[in-house]
Amino acid sequence: MSSIFGAQAAARNDGQKAHQAAVTTSVEIASNLTLAIQREQDLAVSAGGFVIGNPNASLDQFQRWAGSTQVFERFPEIQGIAEVVMVPASQLSTFAAHVEDPSAGLNPSGQPFQVTPPGARPYYCFATLSQSRTSQPLTPVGTDLCDTVLGPGLMSTRDSGEGAYLPYGTGSSAEMVVGTPIYQGGVVPTTVQARQDAFIGWTGTEILPSMILADALRGQHGTEASVHYASGTESATFTAGAAPAGAQQSTIELHNGWSVQVYSLVGGSGVLGNPTVLAFLLGGILLSLLLALLVFVQGTSRSRAVLLVHERTDQLRHQALHDSLTGLPNRALILDRIGQMLARGRRQHTPVAVLFLDLDNFKDINDTLGHRAGDELLVGVGTRLGSALREGDTVGRLGGDEFVVLTEGASLASGAGIVADRILDVLSTPFEIADSDVPLAVTASIGCAEGDRSTPEELLQDADIALYQAKAAGKRRAVCFAPSMQKAVDDHRHLEVDLQGALLADQFFLEYQPTIDLSTGVFTGVEALIRWRRPERGVVQPDDFIPALESTGIIVPVGTWVLQEACRQGARWHEQGYRFTVSVNVSARQLERDRIIDDVHDALKTSGFDPGSLILELTETALMHDVEQTVTRLGLLKALGVRIAIDDFGTGYSSLAYLRQFPIDVLKIDRSFVSGISDTTESAALVHTLVQLGKVLGLETIAEGIETDDQRIRLADEQVDTGQGFLFARPLSVDDVDRLLGVPAGKSGASVTASSR
Ligand code: C2E
Ligand code: MG
Ligand code: MG
Q: I need a surface site. Which of 120, 266, 339, 637 has the fewest CB within 10 A?
């Protein structure tokens, strides 16, 4: 990375401040290059290892190795890879017979062996094993590579022990051959004589350097870079990027026959606006590239030593790039593969897509059946995903219950939505899990994103956004990304950011909605309901921010505050002589922790509020989360003297068997039943059943959301104890409650007076 620091220093010397964006871009370029070179180095080590470990390998075995190594998928710049041997004239006929022998598996086409160009020479260099991107033979059987422009370079690598980058012009596209000598035992002997004796051959890869350059310059608009090589009659130029008209040229001589030209527009400020600095920067980066290539070529002699431990290294590399539970590619490898997929898509104009999958009910499974069952399920899901895909598609695990599928080309002929549906389909059969008596049914949501992006992260992020939409739309479905979704995500992010500081900034406040005794019309208490005074947006209702508070976990400190505030206010009313109940809503996230017990205890203690007047409202789903823990915590809460209500009752499980295990005092019948009571006999019957259920269990019943007098009368007839709703009062400020406490409510006919209970 020294070139970047060098450029920054030059910018300072020129009295110009380096622009942060330019530096970031440069870091990207440099890291792209480093990555490409490291990967090629890995490949050379790996190919050499294959040849040394399999001296009699057939062409078929070599091609299978290349396939399993995913040479062409992983290295877009590589056009072909070959193992080349040197054959002295004295051994030519033996070698020819060996190649023609069908059992050696070196000449599947069965063409007779023929030296090309013909002629008697002291030695020949033949590719024995090879694989090309197009699957065409890299060179016809018998082609003497040492009689091509590569000859001198290859021979010098044999003696020096160091690899070389050799320009190799074929047709219009300038190519390079990277030749790396291989010696018996995998290490480079120390003397020239010993190197000649132990010499086996070369690993040769044909690469398009412009592709590495282009990849490295991605996102650098208005910049063109070309690397030029000239030596004797040989010359080659590799170019990447496109400079607009008026671009300035700067040339950097690297000697050894290499030079670098950079074309870019002058303008703006900072590194990119200063031609000297820019040339220095890009020259530096390209110089780093070439130096790194040289280091690579020289380093391959050192990497021979690595061969001895390469199996271990492979193992470590595998561990670094794969998820240990499922063995699937992890985030790092997935991002790398997305990068390669995008590059292929761009080159071959094929469609590409990322599918981001998240299980809908994984937390519940983990909570109820334990982590071992959860792990087993994740492995099962990984396997099923693999089975649903075509060869060439990739499945990875990002962590937790998040999986990613990469798919491209023919798989996408009918769109990514079809692939997503197929995945949802294979997951629909329940999973057999050791720790579960019954097969486990799971559902998943999928977000997909298709098409080109400038970075792998972007494509993954768009798929994540689509996943968020799929979850919001009710889960168990696939949604594909559309640009309009970005706004919803941005809004949500702003909401989360704003919520972070809301508690400290004192933006929350409580309103209190009265509850009324339905038989006497007497005021019995209030329910504390949170509100948020959001800067520049006004007062926000809880349905619009409680889900975000819960998903971020901020509900826990906010819930603590609500308890304290409600108890403080309740104690104040009690002091004034109005002894009524105060109900506080407690979310599932709060009930999940032991802290809730301390929170309630502290709120009561600090305020001095009567525990018997505090009602904690919990929803059925919150109770069902982890039944055993819930029963314990509710027991401890009850021991503090508070009462427990089930909120929104009737919308969850409503199973009597379950309810009986919780120490509950109050049933709050959900608004949806109340609103239908006047209109449908079903609702009326349901309310009747729920009230009877409450009575059987010895519970107080409250009906929520009473809006009409007719509803009030019917609920009173059903002997519902208490009512709450707009008919009596909306959620009110403390001042309004104070005012109401002294004023009889005329509208409903129910008289509201403070009751002393
Ligand atoms: P909830 O606990 O069921 O509260 C009753 C909701 O019904 C309140 O909505 C109330 O304004 C509304 N409501 C009452 N009477 C009527 C009526 O006659 N007609 C209609 N249409 N609505 C009525 P709000 O204040 O918007 O609160 C919504 C939900 O937000 C609450 O439902 C509760 O689940 C949650 N929530 C409110 N405050 C807190 C809090 O401090 N902590 C937690 N965890 N949740 C809270
Ligand atoms: Mg409530
Ligand atoms: Mg409710």
A: 120
